[in-house]
Write a structure and sequence with these properties.
By secondary structure, the protein is of the alpha/beta class. It has three domains: 1-31, no CATH class; 36-286 and 519-569, no CATH class; 297-514, Glycogen Phosphorylase B (Rossmann fold), CATH 3.40.50. The chain is 44% helix and 11% strand. The chain has 25 helices and 14 strands. A seven-stranded mixed β-sheet has the order 3-2-1-4-5-6-12, sandwiched between helices. It has a five-stranded parallel β-sheet with strand order 9-8-7-10-11. A two-stranded antiparallel sheet has the order 13-14. Strand 1, helix 5 (73-88) and strand 2 (92-97) form a beta-alpha-beta unit. The radius of gyration is 25 Å and the shape is globular. This is Capsule biosynthesis protein.
Length: 574
C-alpha cells in the first residue's frame, strides 16, 4: 500500500492520536503552523457533520481539485478550503498532488533556484521537500480520495517523457503537440516565467531549462490522462490554468470533456476571480457583453465604483498594488522631466514583458516590445505631440521582478530619445493615475488600467489584447496600419461622456465588483500565504454562510456564471 493510501486509511479510523502522529512522522510536520488552517481542529468542531457529508458525497458528482503544487501557498490554502466546502455541498472531491516528481514547475524561479538544480535533477532534494509537506498538511486531515503523481505514472511513461524531452529539437518545443494537447506552449510559458523574461535569446541555460519544463509537462499529461481514465470527474478545479503543470491538466481535461474551472487571486482584498474552461486572462477577453451591459444601473452603483477606483490610487482596498505612497503632484513632476503641459500629452502604459508575452494575446503587433518601439518611432515624426511612457512598476515591484526590463530594450534602439518622448521608469513613485489624468488620451497594450482610465473619461487606444478591448468603449485597431491611422487622429481633444462614459463605468463595476468574488473569511495577513481562513467552526463553510462562497461553489458544481451580483448582495469595502 502506498504512503498516501496508508495515511488515508489510517485517518478514516477513530484512533485520532495515532493518526496524527503517523501523519506527522511521515511528512515531517511537528506543530501547527501560524495562519495555515488546522483542518483536524476545524473538523472536530462538528465531526458528525463532516463524516455524514463525506458519506453522502460518495454518490455525488466527482470533482478533481488539481492543486498539484502544494507549496504554492496562496493557491493550495484556498483549494483545501474549497475541497471542504464542496464536500459539504455533496461533491465527491478528489485531490491531486505532485510528490517530488516534476523536474520543473510553476513554483520554481531563477531568483532562488539556479539552472544547475534543474540540469542535475536536484529539485526533489530542495524545493520539492517543503512543497509536498505543505500540500500534505492541507489535504491529509480531510481524508478525501487523494492521488499522487508517482502513483499515476508507469516506469515506461517516465522514460518516454525523458526521452522525448531530450530528442525533440529545441526550436520545436514551444509548438509541440501530443495528439491535440498543446504541451510545448505551456512548457515554454513555464520557462519564460522561470527566467522572468519575454524571450530566452540571452539565457545561456535556456535549453536545459526548456527541456526540464517540457519533460514535466509530458509527465503531467500522462499522469492526468491516467487519472481521468480511472474516475468519472464532472469538473476539475485548479489555479492559474497556464504554465506547467496546471495548463497541461486543463488541456487533458478539456480533451476528455471534463469541465474546467480556473481561478486566481483578484486585486481587491478578500476577493478571487474564477472562470470556466480557461484562465481568466483569456476568458475576460471573450466574455459575452450581455453579462454586464444590460444590468440595472443607478446613482448608488456609479458612486460605489468611482469611490473604489479613487481608492486604487493609494491601494487602500486592494491586496495587490505597487506603491505605498504614490506621488500625485504631477505638475511638479512634469516640470522636473521637461514635459510641457501646454502641449498635448499622449500617455502610454506598458506591461511587464514576460507577463504580456504569456497572458495577453498579440493583436495589432506580434509582441509588446515591437508595439513600444514602433510607437516611439511614430511619435518622433509628430513633434507637436508629447508621448509619456509609464513603464509598469511591477517590473521591479511585482511577485517576479522582470529580468528583461523595458528601458534597456528601448535604449538598444534609441541611444537618445526623441525630444518629445518622455519615460517614467518603473522605480519612480509617480502616481500612474495622476500622470494619465493629464493626458489627452492613453495607449495601452494589455493593462487592466484601461478599465479605470475609461471610467475617468479618458479615451483609450488598445494596441494589444486588454480586457477592456471589444467592450464598445475603447478604440481597438486590429493591424499596424489601422493602429497608426488611429494615432493620426491624435490629439482627440474630447473626453468620454454621456452613454459612452456610463458604459465604461458599468463595465468597471462588473469587472471589480461582480467578477471579483469576495470571501469575507479570507483575512489578509503578513507573510506567506498573504491571507488566512478566519472561521471558528466547520459550519461556517455550509451553504448560506457566505454569499461569495455560494457563488463559487455553485459555479464549480453546476457551471453557472462566476458573477457575484454586488448590486444585490452588497460590496465588501475592507
Amino acid at each position: 500500500m502506498s504512503l498516501w493510501n496508508k495515511l488515508v486509511s489510517l485517518i478514516k479510523k477513530p484512533q485520532k492520536n495515532q493518526v496524527i502522529e503517523t501523519v506527522k512522522a511521515n511528512i515531517g510536520i511537528r506543530k501547527k503552523i501560524p495562519n495555515w488552517p488546522d483542518w483536524e481542529e476545524m473538523l472536530n468542531t462538528n465531526r458528525l457533520l463532516w463524516e455524514e457529508a463525506k458519506e453522502k458525497a460518495k454518490t455525488g458528482p466527482q470533482v478533481l481539485m488539481g492543486t498539484s503544487v502544494g507549496g504554492a501557498l496562496p493557491m493550495s490554502l484556498p483549494e483545501s478550503m474549497l475541497a471542504v466546502a464542496l464536500t459539504l455541498r455533496g461533491a465527491q472531491v478528489h485531490t491531486l498532488l505532485c510528490d517530488r516528481l516534476l523536474p520543473a514547475c510553476i513554483l520554481v524561479q531563477k531568483l532562488d533556484i539556479p539552472e544547475t538544480t534543474l540540469a542535475n535533477y536536484e529539485l526533489a532534494k530542495t524545493r520539492c521537500q517543503d512543497c509536498f509537506k505543505a500540500g500534505s498538511y492541507f489535504y491529509q486531515p480531510l481524508a478525501l480520495p487523494g492521488h499522487l503523481y508517482s502513483e499515476l505514472l508507469s516506469d515506461t511513461e517516465r522514460e518516454k517523457a525523458k526521452n522525448l524531452s531530450g530528442e525533440v529539437p529545441l526550436s520545436e518545443i514551444p509548438n509541440y503537440q501530443l495528439g491535440n494537447l498543446n504541451i510545448g506552449e505551456h512548457a515554454y510559458a513555464g520557462a519564460l516565467r522561470y527566467f522572468a523574461s519575454g524571450n530566452l535569446d540571452n539565457e545561456p541555460y535556456r535549453e536545459v531549462v526548456m527541456r526540464r519544463y517540457f519533460e514535466g509537462a509530458l509527465l503531467t499529461a500522462f499522469a492526468t490522462k491516467n487519472l481521468l481514465a480511472k474516475h468519472n470527474f464532472t469538473v476539475a478545479c485548479f489555479n492559474h490554468g497556464i504554465y506547467s503543470p496546471h495548463g497541461i491538466i486543463g488541456e487533458v481535461c478539456r480533451e476528455n470533456l471534463v469541465r474546467v474551472v480556473n481561478w486566481n487571486v483578484a486585486y481587491r482584498k478578500r476577493c478571487f476571480i474564477f472562470s470556466h474552461q480557461d484562465t481568466y486572462h483569456h476568458t475576460m477577453l471573450t466574455e459575452p457583453l450581455d453579462a454586464w451591459e444590460n444590468m440595472p444601473w443607478n446613482e448608488t452603483m456609479e458612486e460605489s465604483i468611482l469611490e473604489y477606483l479613487k481608492s486604487r490610487w493609494q491601494g487602500t482596498r486592494d491586496w495587490i498594488w505597487f506603491h505605498e505612497q504614490p506621488d500625485e503632484e504631477f505638475v511638479r513632476i512634469a516640470g522636473e522631466i521637461g514635459l510641457d503641459l501646454n502641449k498635448p500629452i499622449i500617455g502610454m502604459l506598458t506591461n511587464v514583458m514576460w507577463d504580456a508575452q504569456l497572458h495577453y494575446r498579440a493583436n495589432a503587433f506580434p509582441n509588446m516590445l515591437t508595439w513600444v518601439l514602433e510607437t516611439i518611432k511614430y511619435f518622433a515624426q509628430r513633434p507637436e505631440l508629447q508621448l509619456l511612457i509609464r513603464i509598469h512598476p511591477a517590473e521591479i515591484r511585482g511577485t517576479l521582478p522582470s529580468r528583461q526590463p523595458l528601458l534597456p530594450e528601448i535604449m538598444k534602439v534609441w541611444k537618445e530619445l526623441p525630444p518629445n518622448v518622455f519615460i517614467i521608469p518603473p522605480d519612480s513613485n509617480v502616481s500612474t493615475y495622476a500622470a494619465m489624468q493629464e493626458c489627452d488620451s492613453v495607449i495601452i497594450y494589455g493593462t487592466k488600467t484601461g478599465v479605470e482610465l475609461t471610467s475617468m473619461g479618458i479615451p483609450v487606444i488598445v494596441g494589444g489584447e486588454a480586457w477592456i478591448r471589444g467592450k464598445g468603449i475603447t478604440i481597438d485597431p486590429v493591424s499596424p496600419a489601422e493602429y497608426f491611422q488611429c494615432l493620426d487622429k491624435l490629439p482627440l481633444k474630447i473626453k468620454l461622456a454621456g452613454e459612452e462614459l456610463k458604459r465604461a463605468r458599468k463595465y468597471a463595476y462588473h469587472f471589480f465588483f461582480r467578477r471579483m468574488i469576495p470571501l469575507q473569511f479570507m483575512e489578509p495577513v503578513a507573510g506567506k500565504p498573504p491571507y488566512k481562513i478566519k472561521i471558528s467552526k466547520l459550519d461556517e463553510l455550509l451553504p448560506g454562510s457566505d454569499p461569495g462562497l455560494d457563488v463559487i461553489c455553485e459555479g464549480i458544481l453546476s457551471g453557472s456564471p462566476f458573477i457575484y451580483e454586488a448590486e444585490k448582495l452588497g460590496i465588501s469595502t475592507s
